[in-house]
Design goal:
With 320 residues, this protein is an alpha/beta fold. The chain has 13 helices and five strands.
């Protein structure tokens, strides 16, 4: 009987240990994925390059009380596509749209991210009616981007393309419907394990809701580039994805800071840091897009960013 009891207990212990070893580690949730990262890279076109939504999201990060907040690096580039396509006569024939693939390896090498957000699509349809060959190039571009990022051991998060305002910049056909197709494909990749934040659907719905009361409402006065309210809407989708619905549900980044108990004085410091790092990293990686400021050498930019981070940390501490 004693031998049976000892044998039974050993078997039970071994079973528990085997189960513990065999059980896969739980994937981190969105907030844990973001706050547990060391270096977060944003890729995109002129909307990302403008930087407001990136800075608003970074300001939210600064209120999280993290002992070592992630470094956020914005490497958005105006006019860029993930599809590698450009329309005839782009920019008055001065230059074709830059292709992310041309600079991607260099960006990843110098930014060294462990988490990458990417938002492409509004340029990738080339502002023309839906075309299967253009669509295929978009799909392949995103697959290649995902592969390159994950090959380096980083996590990849896709943001669906923003709304296109056909009311403000009509084309004779609904270009936002083209982006509907692009967005739907990205959302469908969730079945294959892609992490996808839906911006396009909620932004389209929000503009429609606002226009029920204000017919001329827009987030994008020129049809493409968001105003500050539009950039806040983009940032709020990222914040909501991270699980902070109370911060995401307010109407501006200033209100978000108030909800978080942080002073508004934090925001211009975060904007400045974003700009310094963006210009340095985009310039250092190199690209084929004329008219983009080169920025400081990265060591000088990092030194300025460190000084700004100390000030940001002091301002954020006022909320705790």
């Amino acid at each position: 009987m004693a031998i049976f009891s000892v044998s039974f207990r050993l078997t039970a212990v071994l079973a528990v240990l085997t189960t513990a070893v065999a059980a896969p580690a739980a994937e981190p949730g969105p907030r844990e994925l973001v706050t547990g990262s060391r270096r977060i890279l944003f890729l995109g076109d002129s909307i990302t390059a403008a930087g407001q939504y990136v800075a608003f999201f970074d300001a939210w990060l600064a209120t999280q009380g993290l002992p070592a907040p992630p470094v956020v690096i914005n490497c958005g580039l105006p006019s860029e596509t993930v599809s590698g396509l450009s329309e005839e006569g782009h920019a008055g024939g001065k230059f074709p749209r830059p292709d992310l693939a041309e600079r991607l390896t260099r960006v990843l090498e110098i930014a060294k991210p462990d988490l990458v957000f990417a938002c492409y699509g509004i340029n990738c349809g080339i502002y023309e009616p839906f075309d299967e060959s253009r669509f295929a190039r978009y799909q392949q571009g995103y697959r290649d981007l995902k592969g390159a990022i994950e090959q380096r051991g980083a996590k990849f998060v896709v943001i669906t393309p923003p709304f296109y305002d056909d009311q403000r910049a009509p084309k004779g056909f609904p270009y936002n419907a083209v982006l509907d197709r692009y967005s739907d494909w990205l959302l469908g990749q969730r079945k294959s394990g892609w992490t996808v934040i839906d911006l396009h659907g909620p932004m389209t719905a929000e503009v429609g809701r606002r226009r029920a009361d204000q017919a001329d409402f827009t987030f994008q006065p020129d049809g493409v580039h968001p105003n500050e309210a539009g950039h806040w809407f983009v940032a709020s989708r990222l914040i909501e994805w991270c699980g902070d619905e109370s911060s995401a549900g307010v109407g501006s980044p200033e209100e978000m800071l108030k909800v978080r108990g942080a002073p508004e004085s934090l925001l211009p410091l975060v904007r400045q840091r974003m700009s310094v790092l963006r210009d340095a990293y985009v310039g250092a990686a190199g690209h084929k897009r004329p008219g983009v400021a080169k920025g400081l050498p990265i060591p000088e930019a990092e030194a300025q960013a460190a000084e700004l981070s100390a000030k940001i940390g002091a301002e954020a501490a006022k909320s705790r």
